[in-house]
Design a protein that fits this description.
Layout: H1 3-12, H2 20-26, E1 29-30, E2 39-45, E3 53-61, E4 66-69, H3 79-88
């Protein structure tokens, strides 16, 4: 499964997580491919200045067809620290 597959499944189910307007509102970017444990990383701006980004580890729940925040929103100051968490996450 890929991020593109998840986007398609979410849209078909009426979920707006990856909609352009939603992503733009939070300044979100997908920063990784899907890991084997169904996690991936996004980054978002940390303030109104839109200069600094923080990283969030997300989990795609296939049974519920939802994306869940498993790390805390913007919990990681670096992409490397988010990658370490994502690789080791156990649902």
């Amino acid at each position: 499964m890929t991020i593109a597959d998840i986007k398609q499944k979410l849209r078909a189910g009426g979920n707006h997580f990856f909609d352009k307007d939603s992503m733009r509102f939070f300044g979100s970017r997908v920063e990784s491919s899907l890991y084997k444990n169904n996690t991936f990383i996004t980054s978002e701006y940390t303030g109104f200045e839109r200069t600094k980004r923080a990283y969030t580890v997300r989990y795609y729940n296939e049974q519920k067809n939802t994306v869940e925040d498993v790390s805390g929103f913007g919990a990681f100051p670096t992409l490397d620290s988010a990658k370490e968490f994502a690789r080791n996450y156990k649902a």
